[in-house]
Description:
The structure is a single chain. By secondary structure, this protein is an all-alpha fold. The protein is built from twelve helices and no strands. It starts with 8 loop residues before the first helix and ends in a 20-residue tail after the last helix.
Amino acid sequence: xxxxxxxxxxxxxxxxxxxxxxxxxxxxxxxxxxxxxxxxxxxxxxxxxxxxxxxxxxxxxxxxxxxxxxxxxxxxxxxxxxxxxxxxxxxxxxxxxxxxxxxxxxxxxxxxxxxxxxxxxxxxxxxxxxxxxxxxxxxxxxxxxxxxxxxxxxxxxxxxxxxxxxxxxxxxxxxxxxxxxxxxxxxxxxxxxxxxxxxxxxxxxxxxxxxxxxxxxxxxxxxxxxxxxxxxxxxxxxxxxxxxxxxxxxxx
Length: 252
């Protein structure tokens, strides 16, 4: 199925479908019999998920794109019910289908398999700061950095801000020079009325934009717009320092 990654649209789909057929045949003759969670099932779920992503991108204008996308995602979850990639892609599908309740269920299950929120809360109750609790997570057991950036995007869009902030905080600890992570953190903080954190994160994103040569000028424009609004509201002083009332709600 490596060839599928080298081609667009229908060509890629054909390679994935051929790969799925070969994989299913091999699984039917494998001993011991493949079970959910083993390498066979993970590979099959991953292939189905890749097909779903095609229907959400290159093949999104196909007549049966939506129904085919849902069908292969269901097959992916049947093959491996705890496949975080399939579940997260299902969340994206449901967002596109304007079904936020189902999207929340899918992303919540995906996140629960690698972000142990209850364990973090217990560590905090035991006296650790949130940063210390999050920092104690085993990096090797976590999905890729890029995967988790997408997780944070989905959580933010679904207004699951607590989980989004936990993901973003861990990402910052691993690499504190990613503009998008600080930008998202600032936006989420603004949405939950934590204006001090919002200002700090957006300023960091603005600084990193210049340092890293980030090409997304739309993001920079949005950052500047928000910071200018904060300044007009009096939450940033004329010398650039934070107003003592920055943590309070902005006036209407």
